[in-house]
Structures are given as structure tokens and as C-alpha cells.
Write a structure and sequence with these properties.
Helix content: under 10%
Strand content: over 45%
Strand order of the largest sheet: 26-27-35-34-29-31
Largest sheet: 6 strands, mixed
Number of helices: 1
Shape: rod-shaped
Number of strands: 40
């Protein structure tokens, strides 16, 4: 460094070091005589260094459960142009606290009173150039990511941390749709069962399993999926919603489907299965009734038959209420075996037909039938009034005197057919040796051939066992 004698200016090259130093100055008079003088205790001040900041390890991005602190504190590293850590640099961490339902967070000790201002804290770097923010706690609103910014004077950059608030554990589940439905047995309900899972602050909780359960057969209930099962588990979607399609099982009745998540109190969907369409008519035969044998109804001529009862059911055997059934006698002509209905206000119809309506048990009872004076058999057909193709047939026999057919010499099978055709029944069958009748053929009957007996009487057989 030197003095320019023409101008009196100090010029030259400055020191590379920052600090105090001594330099000389020369005064020049009008005669150009130079007088040197030392100037001491001068200071050369360096320009502010250019700094660089980087985020600390594992500090961004981060997920944090609402209303809890970040697992890894926010931190930055400040270095100078030479990559050396800078101690004592003031770093400001700021986050915008949004109004209303906006995800955000606060620093411990930060100003969290005004929700429309920036919440900020200032932290100095340590000897390693690291500035670590105090604990940062998420607010109660799920969402993000949102930004937390770190800055320091003279730095050529700032650092932005990405933070996302995630929902807490399931706290509540509520039904959002699908309850109160009715479907026919075996049919799918029109609307799916829907529910929503939230945490304690009302945030939607995604990707958590919800277990659905319904009563199983023989009780009325529902099934889910294919193959059908009375229980199913479905995960909530990104908005905490869950949806499941239910199918009524084959039993009729009302019941509840439950939906459970974790240890949260379950919710229920009230459902009802109703019977399907008529599928068949089933004859209901009385028990311990001597006038009904092997499905055949018997009555002495000019007397009443035991009531004829049918049940209308759907394809799964569920009884159907309110179904009209028409009963029709095959013959009312007094010249042939038959009978007549005794109709009245409760059993409307004619001598040949009557109509009855099923009750809660799906059963309908025909009007009383009185046998005419002719011994022999006839039929009564019960058909659905709305669909005559759905029907069943009763066999009735007017009991009177008939002759025992001659079946001696016939095989046992042929003899049985002939006896039944004569409206008689085969009674006891015994065997005996015979030199004249082949084995398996009838030796004799009791009563004997041609005897007059009541319709439905038993005829005992003796069958040859051979010689």
C-alpha cells in the first residue's frame, strides 16, 4: 500500500487478513518535499460473508399425528462460502397459522394467539452451525403438506420444510347410509352399507379396517362377498369412508348388521329380509289322524273329510301370507265317487271349488268336503289363484263296500297293484311252502276274493316260498 504523491491518495493492495494494521502516509508541501508520518491503529473491515443453509437430516418431509409434536425437530445447518460452519447466526423459523380448518402447527413459546399471523421463533446456530427449532406441534386439523420456513440474514437461500398432519387413531364411527333397508331373501340390498371413521378431533381416518358382521343362518341375516360369508372386513378410503354391499340370506326377519373399528363402540344397520315370490304349494298332512293313511284321505260315504290344508312358500321354503288358494274337486257328479264343498261367508265358492287365503304361517284351509254316496276315489287340486301352474293334488277315497279282487297266483307286486286299485290296502304278508304255486306268488288272501269289505280295508296275503 503506498501514497500517490500527485493526489495524496493512499493506494496499493489491501491485506488478505481482516484486523488491525499500521501504514505510512507522506505529506507533500508546495516545494514537493515529502514528510513521512506514520499512521497507526487503523482497521480494515471485511464485507459480510455469503452464507448457505441446508435442512437437517430427516427433517423434511415429515408426517405428524394431529395435536402431537414432530418426531424429528426442525433444524438447519449454516455454512460460509468456504463450507465452514457459522456459529451465532440468527435463524428464524416461521409457519403460517391458517384460519378455520387449515392444517398447521405451532412452536413451543411461539405466538399462537392470533390465528391470522405468522408464528415464529429465532434460534442461534451452535458451534457446528446448527440451529434447532423448539418442539413443533401440529394443530388438530388433518391435511397438508404445509410449509415451515427457515431464514437467516446474508444467506443466499432459505429452507422450506414440508409437514403433513395425519389423523389420530379411530375414535368414532358413524353410519352414513344403508340402514333401514328391506330386500327379498336371496336378493342384494339396493344401497350399500356406508360408514365414516374419525379421530377424536373429527378428522377422517383413512386406511383402517372396519369389520362388518351379520347373523348367520338359520337366523335372518346377510352375507357379503363371493363366496358369501356373514362377516367381512373393509378398509376406509382416503376420506375415512367405508362401503360394503350386503345380500339378504334365505331366512325371513329383521336383524342388525354391526360395523366395528378397533375398540370403538360399534354402530348398527337395521335390516329386514322379506319372503320371495310364491314358488310352490305344499300339502300339510295331519298327524295321528286315522282317516289319513299314506297320504290318502278317507271318509265314509255321506260323511265329512278331515280338513285339507296347504302352505304356500317361496323358493327357500319361507311361508307367504295373503296368498289366495283355489281348491277344486275333480268330481261332484253323484254317479261317480266324489264330494262337495260346504261353502259359506268364510269359505266362498261353489260345490266344486272354494277359495282360502294364507295366514302368517303361509297356510290355507279348504272348506269342509262331504263325501257323496258312491264309494271310490277322487282328487282335489289346490292351486295358486294368481298362478295356476303352482299347485298340489290331494287323493281322497269315499269308504263303502268294495269286493276283494282275486289275486291268487299273481306275483306279490301285481297283487299289491290290484288291491290298491280296488281302494284297499295290503295288510300282513306271510310266506308258506307250496307244491303248486311258484315262489313269490300269492297262495291266498284274507278276506278271500269276492268278499265285500269297506273301502280302505286291509287284505292280508300268503305268498309262496316254493316247495
Amino acid at each position: 500500500m503506498a501514497l500517490d504523491p500527485s493526489t495524496g491518495a493512499i493506494f496499493g493492495t489491501d491485506s488478505a487478513a481482516i484486523g488491525s494494521f499500521t501504514f505510512g502516509a507522506a505529506a507533500v508541501d508546495s516545494s514537493a518535499n515529502a514528510a513521512a508520518k506514520a499512521l497507526n491503529n487503523c482497521m480494515l473491515v471485511a464485507a459480510a460473508p455469503v452464507l448457505t443453509m441446508v435442512a437437517g437430516p430427516n427433517t423434511t418431509p415429515q408426517n405428524v399425528v394431529v395435536n402431537t409434536a414432530l418426531g424429528t425437530p426442525l433444524a438447519v445447518v449454516v455454512t460460509d462460502a468456504g463450507g465452514n460452519p457459522v456459529k451465532g447466526a440468527s435463524v428464524t423459523f416461521t409457519v403460517t397459522i391458517g384460519p378455520g380448518n387449515i392444517p398447521s402447527g405451532v412452536f413451543t413459546g411461539g405466538d399462537n394467539n392470533n390465528l391470522n399471523t405468522l408464528n415464529s421463533v429465532i434460534v442461534d446456530t451452535d458451534a457446528k452451525g446448527v440451529a434447532t427449532a423448539p418442539a413443533f406441534t401440529a394443530n388438530k386439523i388433518r391435511g397438508g403438506p404445509y410449509n415451515v420456513r427457515a431464514s437467516t440474514p446474508n444467506a443466499k437461500n432459505s429452507v422450506t420444510f414440508k409437514v403433513t398432519n395425519i389423523a389420530g387413531p379411530p375414535f368414532a364411527i358413524k353410519v352414513t347410509g344403508g340402514g333401514g333397508q328391506t330386500a327379498q331373501v336371496g336378493a342384494q340390498f339396493a344401497k350399500p352399507l356406508t360408514a365414516q371413521v374419525t379421530d377424536q378431533f373429527g378428522n377422517d381416518v383413512p386406511k383402517v379396517p372396519v369389520a362388518f358382521s351379520a347373523p348367520a343362518l338359520p337366523a335372518a341375516g346377510s352375507t357379503f362377498g363371493n363366496p358369501p360369508a356373514a362377516a367381512a372386513t373393509v378398509n376406509t378410503d382416503k376420506n375415512g369412508n367405508v362401503s360394503l354391499v350386503a345380500t339378504a340370506n334365505t331366512a325371513v326377519g329383521g336383524y342388525n348388521i354391526t360395523a366395528t373399528v378397533g375398540k370403538v363402540a360399534p354402530v348398527t344397520f337395521a335390516m329386514t329380509n322379506i319372503a320371495g315370490n310364491p314358488a310352490k304349494i305344499v300339502p300339510i298332512l295331519p298327524t295321528n289322524d286315522p282317516t289319513v293313511q299314506n297320504g290318502m284321505f278317507y271318509a265314509t260315504v255321506n260323511t265329512k273329510y278331515s280338513p285339507l290344508v296347504v302352505q304356500v312358500v317361496d323358493q327357500f321354503g319361507n311361508p307367504l301370507n295373503g296368498q289366495k288358494v283355489t281348491f277344486t274337486i275333480s268330481n261332484v257328479n253323484v254317479a261317480n265317487p266324489g264330494g262337495e264343498f260346504t261353502t259359506n261367508a268364510n269359505f266362498p265358492g261353489t260345490l266344486k271349488t272354494c277359495t282360502a287365503t294364507t295366514g302368517n304361517n303361509g297356510q290355507a284351509t279348504a272348506a269342509t268336503i262331504t263325501a257323496n254316496r258312491v264309494a271310490g276315489g277322487f282328487t282335489v287340486t289346490a292351486s295358486l289363484a294368481a298362478n295356476g301352474k303352482i299347485s298340489t293334488v290331494f287323493n281322497l277315497v269315499n269308504k263303502g263296500k268294495v269286493n276283494v279282487p282275486n289275486v291268487v297266483g299273481s306275483t306279490q307286486a301285481a297283487a299289491t297293484t290290484a288291491i290298491n286299485k280296488a281302494l284297499l290296502n295290503v295288510g300282513n304278508v306271510t310266506t308258506a311252502k307250496s307244491n303248486t304255486v311258484p315262489a313269490g306268488s300269492v297262495i291266498s288272501t284274507t278276506p278271500g276274493a269276492g268278499a265285500a269289505v269297506n273301502v280302505g280295508s286291509a287284505v292280508d296275503l300268503v305268498v309262496s316260498s316254493g316247495k
